[in-house]
Amino acid sequence: METDIPEILSDLRIGADAWSGVQEPVAHALTHDDIQNAVAEYLAAGGVITNIPAGVSSNQPVTFNSRITGSSTGMEREQQKRVQAKRTAKDIEYCQMLEDLVILDCGRWEIGPAMGISDHTVQRLLRTYFSTRTEFDKWRASGHGKSTLINGEKPCSKCKTLKPLSEYYSNPSKKDGHCSECKACENARRRAANAKQAA
């Protein structure tokens, strides 16, 4: 029985056949100039390119290497962005006030009430926006818990005497790595607590 299938199959072409007669490889390379020229042609033809800020285009979870980096929903992230935008706007106002008040001779505790904010907020503003400006040093809070002296001695918070660090128990939860009371005061306090508990 004779059919015409061989004739049909002989004319059939697949995608790989398009490359069968090519002798030289085709270079597939685009430069930045090629991309800029293509964009210019697209815009000249009436095309419009819309710039979408990063993180605003969708409410999908933020991912990096296919891992979700934020557990909050899109609505929560937008709420946080609005709150941060308000805080930044207020910070700009407060920084301008601080710039105006720095020329006056006023103390650290007068700045917060004059601006209507707490000292904690003033210290945050100084750390964030004026960390390298020396004219604001008069308002900076001294570091709490940093009582270790350069020569390796520290004042005891109980007996107020200056003692070497070897006279203190180590305490990793403290900023300087040592207890605030010397060993003698610490032992006396523990003995008094034990005696009170035993009685």
Structural commentary:
This protein is mainly alpha-helical and 199 residues long. Among the domains are: 74-139, no CATH class; 153-198, no CATH class. It contains six helices and four strands. A two-stranded antiparallel ribbon has the order 1-2. Strands 3-4 form a two-stranded antiparallel sheet. Strand 1 (63-64) and strand 2 form a beta hairpin. The protein is elongated, with a radius of gyration of 36 Å. The N and C termini lie far apart (117 Å). The model has no long low-confidence stretch (mean pLDDT 77).
Mean pLDDT level: 77
| Gross morphology | elongated
Largest sheet: 2 strands, antiparallel
* Beta-strand residue percentage: 5-15%
Termini separation comes to 117 Å
**Helicity level, as a percent range?**
40-55%
SS summary, helix count: 6
Question: Could you give the count of β-strands?
Answer: 4
Q: What order do the strands of the largest sheet run in, or round the barrel if closed?
A: 1-2
- C-alpha Rg, in Å? 36 Å
- By helix and strand content, what is the structural category? mainly alpha
- The run of helices and strands is HHEEHHHEEH
Unreliable segments of 5+ consecutive residues: none
Domain Transcriptional regulator SutA RNAP-binding: 27-59
Pfam family, one: SutA-RBD
Protein name: Transcriptional regulator SutA RNAP-binding domain-containing protein
Organism: Pseudomonas aeruginosa
